[in-house]
Structures are given as structure tokens and as C-alpha cells.
Amino acid sequence: MPQNDIHTKEYFHSVVFYREDCIGCTKCVRVCPTEAIRVRMGKAIIDPHRCIDCSKCVSVCPTEALRVEADKLESIYSFKYRLAVISASYEGQFAEDFGFKNALKALYHLGFDEVAEQAMITNITAEIIRDYIKIHPNIRPILSSNCPAIVRLVQVRFPSLLPNLLHIESPMSMLAKYYRDKIIREKGLKEEDIGIFLIVPSASQVTAVHQPEGNYKHLHNGAIAINEIYSKVLAMQKELEEDTRPIVSYANGLSWALSGMEAEEIATEGIETLAISGIHNVIEVLSNIEGHRLDQYHYIELRNCEQGCVGGGLNIENPFVAASRIRKLINNSEKIKIDNDYFFRLYKEGYFDVTQLEPRSMMELDKDIKTAITKMKRVKEITDMLPGIDCAVCGSPTCKALAEDIVLEKAELSDCLIRLRKLRTKKNEE
Fold it and tell me: Distance (Å, rounded) from C-alpha 179 to C-alpha 171?
């Protein structure tokens, strides 16, 4: 059974820890961008307040003690009418000989009554973002909020930049709202009869569905991983070839699955944009933004996954191969028709606003300020006693983190094996 303490009443996490499979190797400790993981007594411990579900720990765990758990396909069958909203990275997972239209048809065969694509509304989303930039001239740069892991990263490590986040719903959420209204109006169904499920490439998107940040509305009923349905889709190739239903392509909007394409589309005369992918690259850039060294940019696209959503951990295909396929699809795209006025009207009415994003504390030494200051001095003293090589052998990600853990009585100075060895060597020399 997974460790229960990663979940709390306050926080839901799609990254789940199976304690019995952990060998205490500290690989997860070293890659965590928010220092959410420690190894104590040979087992990992995950702080649910710091975890942002970036899934970097999942990618390096040698025993699969850390896993991403999304909704199962079977969960869609509890609804009368079922809609799949697919990520722009979905079509890039399937080889040309299978065909991306077959990949879309397959979702109907799996039990969905209707399929919508994130790619349908990237154009109107870009228009909304350009308008947002225009009416917020005092916020520079504005930071993209399309990636839930980045939103949580800002909350945990860069709370001073929360006002810089684009406070607008993600394209997939806006699309879910559009289709929920459309289905109720056209099918005469009740709200509870409609199940809207996202087909996603990353752990953070699963988390965002089950725990929307700020004042996000609960527009979805679940999130299914792309790798959960991939093999099921491939298995029905013969059946799909006999399916003659027409499928409209929205391939032009698939470009947002690739890092840099969102920023490129938003950039027009007078709007300077920048695109960054990879969580540690993003951290470096956010540090520069805090220091006002990137104020020349109007908008910065930030992605947790290398190469963008095609690099998501719940995908199947190599991100470079998937990106190549998507570029080919874009070059052969058809024109799309969707009610752009609907989205722009709701945006202007404030429906898609997300304004109540709260910071999450990385580390609190004490609630009492005087006591906290005293403890901060003690952290400095202990840090100076440590080797400063940030090897993580002690189970803490850095020497400073170990010092904080010691002050909080969650670790001991003797946990630093490097220091113990040096002391032992010095004693023997004497």
C-alpha cells in the first residue's frame, strides 16, 4: 500500500509513494526542485506541502517506489455522457502509419461520446493573453500559468512572483466549460450526468483536476494518463480502419505541445516573449525575474517538462519524435471553427479569472518571529560546520537543508557521514 502521509486534507497528490519498494538511494532527494523529500531510516519521506507533482522523483526512482496514479478509464462509465478533452501532445504519440485521426476515433470506441482537443482554442487563448498583457502594463513579465507544476513552483519557492502569474484558466479548463454548457444546452442533460475527463501527459495535470488552485471551478471529473490508454488504442487498429466517421483536424493548434510555440504565437509587434522548459531551467529564470533582470519581456512561457508537453512523464513516445510528428500535422492542418466569441466574452466577464493563489511556505522554523530568528542563526552555525558539498548522502538535499532539519529536530549532526569521516581522520592523526 502507498504511504498515506503524502496526502492530506489540504493537498491532493498524483505522485504516490510505495514505502516497501524504497531502498533509500536518495536519487529523488537530489532532483526535487522544492526540497520536498528526505531519506530517514533508509526510507524516503515526502512533505505534502512542498511537493508540486513535477514527477522528477518518479523519473529517477530505480525501484518504482514513486509512481503517478491517475484516474482509470473505467471511471468514465459512471456518467451518462462522456467527453474526452485531449492534450495537444496526444496525437504526437502515434506513428504515421497508425494515423492521428485513428487515434482520435479510438476514444469513441473506448466509451467517450464526444472528443474535444486543446488545439481547438489555442488561437483564442493567444488573443486573450495578448489582451491580458495590454490591460496589465504594470506587470512585467507576465508568467504563463498553463503548466500546473509551474504554478505550484511559484507558490512554494517564488511567492513574491504570484502577482506575475497569468490569472486565467488553462485552455483545457476553458474548453471543458464550453463543452459542459454546450452539452447541457443541446442534449438536455443535467450537470451530474456529464463526465468530462482530460487525457493528459503529466502528473501535475492530474493533480490540477483533483485539486484546482485558487478559484478554479471544478470543471472536470477526472484525468486519464496518455500511457493508460495508449496500448488500448493500438490494439483496435483493424476496428478503427472500418470506422468511416468523419474526423475534423485541429492540427494547427497542436503546436502548443512544443516548448516555445505558445510564446511565438503570442508575440506580435510590441510584445516581447521568452520560452523556457525544464524545471531547473525555470527555477534559474524565476530567480532572475525576482532580481528584475528580465523586465524587458512582456510574457514568459514556462514549462516543467523538457521540450514542453511532449516531454511529459505520462507520454509514451520520445519527445523529439513526438515533436517531429506534430510539426508534420501542423503543416497539413485544416481550418477550424469554434465560437471564439464565447471564450472572449467569459474572459471579459471575469469567469476565467484566477486571483486567489496563495503562497506555500518552503520551510517555517517557528511561528514566533523571535524564536525563528534565533533558529535561523543556529541554522547558519550548523551549516558552517558542514562540508558544503550538498552530496545528499545524509538524506537531506543540501547541507543547509540538513542544518534546518537538525534545528527542527528532524535530523542529527551525526547524519553527515562526510563530517564524521573528517573528524575521525583528524582524531587518528592526532
Answer: 12
Angle at 172 between CA 169 and CA 55, to 5 degrees: 90
Which of 43, 44, 34, 47 minimizes the C-alpha distance to 8? 47
What is the share, in percent, of the chain residues with pLDDT greater than 90? 69
Phi/psi of residue 165, nearest 5 degrees: -65, 140
Amino acid at 395: G
What type of residue is 13? H
The per-residue pLDDT for 196 is: 96
By C-alpha distance, which of 333, 347, 143, 179 is closest to 253?
333
Q: Does domain 363-430 have CATH number 3.20.20.150?
A: no
Q: What is the pTM of this model?
A: 0.90
The counts of H helices and E strands in the chain are 16, 11
3-state helix/strand/coil string of 29-57: HHHCCCCCEEEECCEEEECCCCCCCCCHH
Which CATH code, of 3.30.70.20, 3.40.50.2300, 3.40.50.280, 3.40.50.300, is assigned to 1-68?
A: 3.30.70.20
Query: What average pLDDT does the structure give for the chain?
Result: 90
